[in-house]
Amino acid sequence: MRPAAEAQAQLRSLPRSRNVYLVPYLLWMVLFVFAPIVLIVYDSLFDVEGAFTFSNYAHFFTPVYMKMTFSSFWYAFLITAFSLLVGYPAAYLLTKTKHKQLWLLLIILPSWINLLLKTYAFIGLFGTYGAANAILKTIGIGQQQILFTDFSFIFVSVYIFIPFMILPVFNALEEMNPSLIDASRDLGASPWTTFRRVIFPLTINGVKSGCQAVFIPALSLFMITRLIAGSRIITLGTAIEQHFLVTQDWGMGATIAVFLIIAMAVIMVLTGSSRGRTRR
């Protein structure tokens, strides 16, 4: 009876010991997630003169900020779409290569380089006397304005975010049972039908994770937008930067940040709930 009683006592103490390990995680969440959000919400309730007001939220729904919101979502959608169009075939080809882990490491390696350094590198490449214009001159097209265009902004953003699309798709493809593809071919399905009816549905969770990992940070871009697109593209991220660093209207900048946080949370909840339904 004594060993059984001791075992029961140990089982009762397990939840308490596990709760102790949660303390650092909870402290981290409170200090670096919840507290900053509370401070942003607090700042959004004051105008530029420090007076308490709700006018910032009313001002956000004016045509100027609605246009910025649409522009932010549109460019985030384009960046995510192009990342998926390039990243999915790349991840699929990686699963067929001989040294797949090495190739995957080479794709992920650029993400370890500082974002600012990569952005300035593209400024040199796409500049008036950069390598891109030198190639265009060589093939007879002539010098073009590449920097400060929609193309350069989307191209650089896709380059920076594409590892975050390839990795979850690659993992989903690796976990897929290859016998299902063989069965589809044995039943006479074409390669396109096999992809559409077997491969893509089985890897949809990886696609959702990749789209989430790209769309959410792309929604709040400001540094790449400022350096690569200049003043041509104005998004919510650049508006926040302007309000905090130029106009010193912290209340309006915090209000925009609140709406961005809400949008990101909604996206995460929607993708998370859909994954839960597919598992069930």
UniProtKB/TrEMBL annotation:
Transmembrane segments: 20-42, 73-95, 102-126, 146-170, 214-238, 250-270
Highest taxon, organism lineage: Bacteria
InterPro entries assigned to the protein according to its UniProt record, in alphabetical order: MetI-like, MetI-like_sf
GO CC, any one term: plasma membrane
Pfam families from the UniProt entry: BPD_transp_1
Keywords, sorted A to Z: Cell membrane, Membrane, Transmembrane, Transmembrane helix, Transport
Membrane topology of this protein: Multi-pass membrane protein
CDD domains: TM_PBP2
Signal peptide: none
Compartmental location: Cell membrane
GO biological process: transmembrane transport
Domain ABC transmembrane type-1: residue ranges: 69-271
Keyword Zinc-finger appears in the UniProt entry: no
Family that this chain belongs to: Belongs to the binding-protein-dependent transport system permease family. CysTW subfamily.
PANTHER family on file: INNER MEMBRANE ABC TRANSPORTER PERMEASE PROTEIN YDCU-RELATED, INNER MEMBRANE ABC TRANSPORTER PERMEASE PROTEIN YDCU-RELATED-RELATED
Protein name from the UniProt record: ABC transporter permease
Organism (species): Paenibacillus lycopersici
Lineage: Bacteria, Bacillati, Bacillota, Bacilli, Bacillales
